[in-house]
Amino acid sequence: MGIEKNVSDRKDKREYSNSKKRRRSRRRREVSKVQKLYETCKQVFANCGPGVVPSPQNVERLKAVLDNMTKADVGLTTNMPYFKSTVSERSPKIMYLHLHECDKFSIGIFCLPPSAVIPLHNHPGMTVFSKLLFGKMHIKSYDWADNLLPDQSTPNANISDNDVGDWTGLRLAKLKVNSEFRAPCKTSILYPADGGNMHCFTTRTACAVLDVLGPPYCDPEGRHCQYYYDFPFPNFSVQWMACQCLRNNKMNMRGSKRGRNLRT
């Protein structure tokens, strides 16, 4: 009986040791994909700045890295509290997981419960890569259309005094995307003047969006996040967009926290 017990104990220890090795190996694989994303971003955005788009080759290179990433690679599961909303919440709160930010680029993850909304907002002078890691959401995006109708007068905007927010200006914008997206799907890319630089997200289910911005928002340099209200005009193939002040229309954030450590 003593010999059998010793053999059993040694077997249990070996299985426990092997289990620990598998967990360590899995963690190394997870970190390596995030680390690879960081290293790729560092190279892709090295010679870029506000309004400067990476070369087509570098855009495809970064897109390929993001296309192959999953929620497991960044340590997310769908049952985390970030993706749950309470019955009492009229507008579900959004969590942002900060992975990295420098002068050249930022990496982070938006964690959104069902029915969460990221309001229509812009990305001034930025190239943005967005990868839907899981879930289903509706995306609506626009590009400015200042030069689309050079020979036509600007349509009159009838804005009610009851509209929410302070109106700071009106500009014409062209609808770029108005569709539902479900993971797995390819990485979407927007550019400073194309690709739907202004967009809004409405989740149908819990979602996680991995975002890379180059360069990141920076208020002192004039790259602040501006929110908008859009409304259609009849007989136009484009939609008229009314600019709305940031302070009156922020997204409903639960907060932000630092995610995985990266070797910088």
What keyword list fits this structure?
6-stranded antiparallel β-sheet; about 35% strand; about 260 residues; single chain; globular; 6-stranded mixed β-sheet; 2 helices; alpha+beta; 12 strands; metal-binding
Widest beta sheet: strand line-up: 7-4-9-2-1-12
List segments where confidence is low: pLDDT < 50 over at least 5 consecutive residues: 150-167, 245-249
**Approximately how much helix is present in the residues?**
10-25%
Rounded mean pLDDT is 80
Strand portion: 25-35%
Structural class: alpha+beta
Amino- and carboxy-terminal Cα gap: 55 Å
Integer-rounded radius of gyration: 23 Å
Compute the number of strand runs.
12
Q: Tally the helices: what do you get?
A: 2
Largest sheet entry: 6 strands, mixed
Shape: globular
The H/E string reads HHEEEEEEEEEEEE
TL;DR of this structure?
With 264 residues, the chain is an alpha+beta fold. The protein has helices at 2-44, 56-67, and strands spanning 94-101, 106-112, 117-121, 127-134, 136-144, 167-182, 188-190, 198-203, 207-214, 227-231, 239-244, 253-258. The chain has 2 helices and 12 strands, in the order H-H-E-E-E-E-E-E-E-E-E-E-E-E.
